[in-house]
């Protein structure tokens, strides 16, 4: 039973980790807590749903959604956030704006898809295998495999490519980064695209797993993902990875062993305990905020 | 090479630059001296486009670069170090230097720049894999200068490279600036250490409260009674 829940938690947690990475990347570059990231995740799920409705097949639909949602990420930044940076507004203005953007996105989804839960078809044919009394479904393998692969790709990109070097430079010192000849706007656009695209894939995976989508799904999953990021250490890729897995596993374990009423609360108890002991999160560095 | 005319800049309501005129010619070392708060760093920021000037003009090799965004400077051949070094602390020495060559594509040329920088600063070579934040102040300053040289600039602008260094290192730093200049890089040097700066410079500008108060040949300024009294610490 424990192993079974561990498997369930790992599959779910890996997707949380994927969403957390995008949230963390944007924070790293702009020191912006982008609350709209969860709404972008919901948006991505619905764009995929829309294209599934056009009968292109679930996987192509998710890939189309990835590109479009990445574009929406850029658009949100250009329309709502870039002007604030330009006017050097106080950090809270950006944060509140992202909350506003969340509601706008959710509202758009409600207008187009209705507010209720709609069926999201299975992404891959049902199946799986039994291993020592534990059932591992093909959807769980897909969730785990796709999320892990994307996370490894992102890690490679950030640590071993020129664009990644520019992203890390900006994360540390935007002023000096500009003097190196780095076009800050391109790096920001690229980062918002990555965040939107990965959130959208996660949206497709989660919706495929639960076989449903609803406009408020960002509200349900957002707090967990934001917690995963902070638990692991915001701005840290390994942190997002471990934080996501931990939150996923704790959630599933709590539901199993304490009762389903504990499902959503338990992870936050752990979050608060970790932060009291280690305010920068498990893998976080103490950030000297340079504004 | 660099020509600044009637440059004005503000921090909110503070009129920090009140019409700066200065010029740097190819091959020179020119220093910009003046007491703390005179506006030296602000002049550099305004030239670099990190602070938009409210009035005035900056040209480089005859081209107007007043409105050029900061990231466009390196490609024009202009590179600078900021006051307080501003290295990328969590990145390694090597990554910091790589970033200095960010706009370069040619691998061979980049390798040659690494060699040049390691030749000038052997200490950096011993610490390639070390995080910049763990270097000493002097080493960080060398890294900032090395990073600025990685783009093989025509003009190097340095903001207080001797700040916070031990006295023996300060002398080394000024020797290095002379070496860099001899290798063909023009230098605009901002310094509070007026004695040392004037000693290695061809010409100098003396700033006071947002204006250029005096300018001329460095050797002559060293003998100027007003400069002696205000900046060189002897009457
Ligand atoms: N970020 C800032 N905000 C407001 N005023 C500033 C800022 N930076 C510098 N100043 C003011 O502008 C003037 C010039 O400063 P600065 O250029 O740093 O002088 P210097 O480099 O010659 O010591 C000073 O009066 C300083 O107080
Ligand atoms: Mg200064």
Descriptors:
heterodimer; A: 291 residues; mainly alpha; two-stranded antiparallel sheet; 11 helices; 4 strands; 4% strand; globular; B: 235 residues; alpha/beta; Rossmann fold; 2 domains; 10 strands; binds adenosine-5'-diphosphate; binds magnesium ion
Describe the protein's architecture and organization.
The complex is a heterodimer of chains A (291) and B (235). By secondary structure, chain A is mainly alpha-helical. Chain A has a domain at 17-218. Chain A has helices at 2-30, 36-53, 58-86, 91-113, 138-160, 162-172, 174-179, 184-210, 217-232, 237-257, 263-277, and strands at 118-119, 128-131, 134-137, 212-213. A two-stranded antiparallel ribbon of chain A has the order 1-4. In chain A, strands 2-3 form a two-stranded antiparallel ribbon. The relative contact order of chain A is 0.20. By secondary structure, chain B is of the alpha/beta class. Chain B contains 10 helices and 10 strands. Chain B has helices spanning 40-48, 73-76, 93-100, 107-120, 122-126, 137-149, 167-182, 194-200, 218-223, 225-231, and strands spanning 2-11, 14-24, 29-33, 55-60, 63-64, 78-81, 155-159, 186-191, 203-208, 211-217. In chain B, the strands form 2 sheets. Chain B has a 6-stranded mixed β-sheet with strand order 6-7-8-3-9-10, sandwiched between helices. A 4-stranded antiparallel β-sheet of chain B has the order 2-1-4-5, with helices on one face. In chain B, strand 1 (2-11) and strand 2 (14-24) form a beta hairpin. Chain B is globular and about 45 Å long. The mean pLDDT of chain B is 94. The A-B interface holds A 162, 165-166, 168-169, 172-173, 175-184, 285 and B 48, 50, 69-75, 79-80, 82, 86-91, 95, 98-100, 102-103, 147, 151. The structure holds adenosine-5'-diphosphate (ADP) and magnesium ion. Magnesium ion binds at residues 40-41, 83, 160 of chain B. The site of adenosine-5'-diphosphate (ADP) has 11 residues of chain B, from strand 2 and helix 1.
């Amino acid at each position: 039973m424990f192993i079974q829940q561990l498997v369930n938690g790992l599959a779910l947690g890996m997707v949380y980790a994927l969403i957390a990475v995008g949230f963390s990347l944007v924070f790293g570059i702009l020191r912006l807590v982008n609350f709209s990231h969860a709404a972008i995740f919901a948006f991505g799920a619905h764009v995929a749903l829309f294209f599934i409705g056009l009968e292109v097949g679930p996987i192509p639909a998710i890939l189309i959604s990835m590109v479009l949602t990445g574009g929406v990420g850029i658009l949100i930044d250009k329309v709502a956030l870039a002007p604030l940076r330009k006017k050097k507004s106080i950090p809270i203005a950006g944060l509140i704006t992202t909350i506003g953007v969340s509601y706008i996105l959710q509202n758009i989804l409600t207008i187009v898809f209705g507010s209720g839960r709609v069926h999201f078809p299975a992404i891959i044919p049902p199946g799986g295998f039994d291993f020592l009394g534990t059932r591992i479904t093909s959807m769980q393998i897909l969730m785990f495999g796709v999320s892990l692969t994307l996370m490894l790709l992102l890690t490679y990109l950030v640590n071993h490519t020129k664009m990644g070097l520019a992203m890390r430079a900006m994360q540390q010192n935007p002023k000096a980064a500009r003097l190196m000849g780095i076009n800050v706007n391109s790096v920001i656009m690229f980062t918002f695209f990555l965040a939107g695209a990965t959130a959208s894939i996660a949206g497709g995976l989660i919706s495929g797993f639960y076989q449903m989508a609803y406009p408020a799904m960002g509200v349900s999953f957002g707090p967990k993902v934001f917690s995963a990021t902070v638990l692991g250490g915001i701005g840290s890729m390994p942190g997002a990875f471990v934080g996501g897995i931990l939150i996923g596993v704790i959630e599933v374990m709590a539901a199993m062993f304490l009762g389903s009423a504990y499902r959503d609360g338990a992870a936050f108890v752990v979050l608060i305990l970790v932060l009291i002991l280690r305010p920068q999160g498990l893998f976080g560095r103490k950030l000297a905020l340079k504004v | 090479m660099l020509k600044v005319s009637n440059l004005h800049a503000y921090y909110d309501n503070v009129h920090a630059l009140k019409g700066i005129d200065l010029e740097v010619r190819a091959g020179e070392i020119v220093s910009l001296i003046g007491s703390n708060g005179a506006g030296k760093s602000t002049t550099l920021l305004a030239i670099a486009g990190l602070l938009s000037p409210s009035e005035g003009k900056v040209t480089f090799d005859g081209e107007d670069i007043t409105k050029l965004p900061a990231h466009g400077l390196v490609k024009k051949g202009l590179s600078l170090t900021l006051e307080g070094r501003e290295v990328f602390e969590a990145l390694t020495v090597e990554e910091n230097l790589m970033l200095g060559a960010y706009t370069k594509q040619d691998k061979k040329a980049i390798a040659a720049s690494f060699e040049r920088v390691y030749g000038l600063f052997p200490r950096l070579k011993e610490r390639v894999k070390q995080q910049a934040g763990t270097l000493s102040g002097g080493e960080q300053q060398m890294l900032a200068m090395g990073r600025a040289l990685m783009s093989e600039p025509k003009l190097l602008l340095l903001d207080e490279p001797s700040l916070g260094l031990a006295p023996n290192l300060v002398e080394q730093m000024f020797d290095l600036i002379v070496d860099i200049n001899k290798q063909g890089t023009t230098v605009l040097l901002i310094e509070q250490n007026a004695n040392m700066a004037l000693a290695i410079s061809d010409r100098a500008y003396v700033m006071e409260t947002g204006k250029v108060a005096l300018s001329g040949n460095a050797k002559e300024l060293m003998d100027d009674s007003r400069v002696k009294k205000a900046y060189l610490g002897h009457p």
